[in-house]
């Protein structure tokens, strides 16, 4: 029997988070991002960045959460990190081109990834629900997230939990390839992600 839960990331989770990110990007985004860019991603560099995000966040409202799948196999339970959520107040990275800064009651998802082999087991929903609980506690009224236009898994997941496109669009320049994104939002007064 497998159980899943979410907890705040700890410093020793940084390497696992980097591996989840690498695996997910190389699997889910292989048709969106040039292979050369995916091949050049460095696990140690990513782990150092995640370690910093966990140990020295820019504010108390910046959080990294990790999803764990726990299974009982024989007499010893096993636990596997399978996904993560990074979030904080909306900053310039949450903006569309030429957009005015968002208000301080807007949260932004910077990363929400579940390794594809662990998908469809509720980990994304648990991460999002935990994020919503924290956002409400922190006084956020709205949340935003960017998604690749050609990433139906993320778009379908977010819209199925009450998120909607807000009309903002941008294109990321990834190794001279423009990758279009659209921004989604949710009103936290509703039961989003629950």
TrEMBL record:
InterPro entries named among the record's database cross-references: Acyl_CoA_acyltransferase (IPR016181), Bact_Acetyltransf (IPR050832), GNAT_dom (IPR000182)
Report if keyword Transferase is assigned.
yes
Taxonomic superkingdom: Bacteria
Cross-referenced PROSITE patterns: GNAT
* Keywords on record: Acyltransferase, Transferase
Positions of the N-acetyltransferase domain: 4-185
- Under the GO molecular function aspect, what terms does this record hold? acyltransferase activity, transferring groups other than amino-acyl groups
PANTHER family recorded for this chain? ACETYLTRANSFERASE, AMINOALKYLPHOSPHONATE N-ACETYLTRANSFERASE-RELATED-RELATED
Which protein, by its recorded name, is this?
N-acetyltransferase
Organism from which the protein derives: Planosporangium flavigriseum
Q: What is the lineage of its organism?
A: Bacteria, Bacillati, Actinomycetota, Actinomycetes, Micromonosporales
